[in-house]
Amino acid sequence: MRKILINGNKRLAGEVRISGSKNAALAILAATILLPGKTIIRNVPDLLDIKTIIRVLQRLGLRAEYSASQENTVEIWNRGVKHVAPYELVTKMRASFFVIGPILARQGLAKIPLPGGCAIGSRPVNLHIKGLEALGAKVRIEHGFVIAEAAGLKGDRVYLDFPSVGATESVMMAAALAAGETIIENAAGEPEIVDLANFLNLAGAKITGAGTEEIRIQGVKELSPVEYRVIPDRIEAGTFILAVAITKGEALIRDIVPEHIESVVRKLKETGLEIEMLAKDLRVSAKNGFKAVDLKTMPHPGFPTDMQPQFCSFLSLAQGTSVITETVFENRFMCVHELRRMGAEIKLEGQSAIITGVPELSSAPIKVSDLRAGAALVIAGLAAKGETLIEDRDHHIERGYEKLIYKLRSLGADIKEV
Ligand code: UD1
């Protein structure tokens, strides 16, 4: 079990570099199944989830090696892929399920365990299945596995009832090698989708419209191996901005893509934070405090659900009352109960949290339920008076934040693993 001890109420200052995007890297690594030969992916964050997808690729018969010393690079040698994904890895990390599209496209058969629910909601895969069926796959569920078969995938129109990130990625990867044209309607437009499309296009795919709600994929016969660099992690960037801001600090957040964090920055400016956008960096200052705002999570370009728990912590110390409404996941206020134990005043009403700002938070022993809740509690601990002990039994925080403790210490935080 991992425990993190924070001696809070210290102003953060300095600069921090943002790592590569976890979610983009996960999708791109899954997509290497489509590319025969040797592919090199750079700027892949050194995280538990990345280790998991690398193990999935290895169990599928690919050779995949991670090197943190050389620009966080993964080298993949693909000489063919097996069609069964390992149960213990897919149930450990839901994104492992996204290999279903590329395996089906390469092998005509994919047998992938159903990932099941998780702390933030039931998270079904019906839209992935609907998309693959539209491309001609026959899909059945047997003994806890999703089995998809297709003698040859054929492009068609796919309408997603919700712009699911994972389903858009599964269908895009499968359609890259399908015969003819696939049109994904109501597609997700997250920057990670655009990064996956850029990667596939570099490898020879013909994908247009990524980042909009209609993506067109003209299938090609085969893709070729490439070298590619993953985009910076916009959620890590947002998390660090809040970590600095909640301590009334001031810092330079380096290696970001400003357009990727527009909706978050807009909200932060509404709170009164001073934010200066530079070409690839951002300067934040919270010296003059911050006030309450209302926000609602939405698919991109709306406010990202992956930043919502961190805002719950931050707004707990804002002047006034904020209302946060979650529309993407049904159970994503897991950190609220722990925040209340630290003195936050938060009422839950349906899918909304009503947060009345308090002058200070106080330390408490607290438990982490999921990745972003973990980040939220670290943020709260940085501002709280006294020693906050965070128990992260399942290593959730390591799933998504590269060198979090090291980076926060470099900004002056008193934080350590115990
Ligand atoms: C991805 C991100 C995750 C982020 C989420 C929403 C990765 C690895 N993870 O997750 O960090 O929080 O996008 O931005 O990229 N849904 C269905 N049926 C499906 C698929 C999804 O009903 O087949 C629902 C989900 O239950 C959820 C909503 O759609 O309520 C959004 O989920 P989705 O966009 O698919 O999230 P993920 O791709 O799993």
Automatic annotation (TrEMBL):
GO-annotated molecular function: UDP-N-acetylglucosamine 1-carboxyvinyltransferase activity
Biological process annotations from GO: cell division; cell wall organization; peptidoglycan biosynthetic process; regulation of cell shape; UDP-N-acetylgalactosamine biosynthetic process
Gene3D superfamilies: Enolpyruvate transferase domain
Native organism: candidate division WOR-1 bacterium RIFOXYC2_FULL_41_25
Domain Enolpyruvate transferase stretches: 7-408
Protein name: UDP-N-acetylglucosamine 1-carboxyvinyltransferase
Binding site for UDP-N-acetyl-alpha-D-glucosamine: R94, D306, V328
Active site feature: C118
EC number: 2.5.1.7
Family the UniProt entry places it in: Belongs to the EPSP synthase family. MurA subfamily.
Coiled coil regions in record: none
Biological role: Cell wall formation. Adds enolpyruvyl to UDP-N-acetylglucosamine.
2-(S-cysteinyl)pyruvic acid O-phosphothioketal PTM sites in chain numbering: C118
Gene Ontology cellular component list: cytoplasm
InterPro entries linked: Enolpyruvate_Tfrase_dom, Enolpyruvate_Tfrase_sf, MurA_subfamily, RNA3'P_cycl/enolpyr_Trfase_a/b, UDP_GlcNAc_COvinyl_MurA
UniProt subcellular location: Cytoplasm
Top-tier EC class: transferase
Primary location: cytoplasm
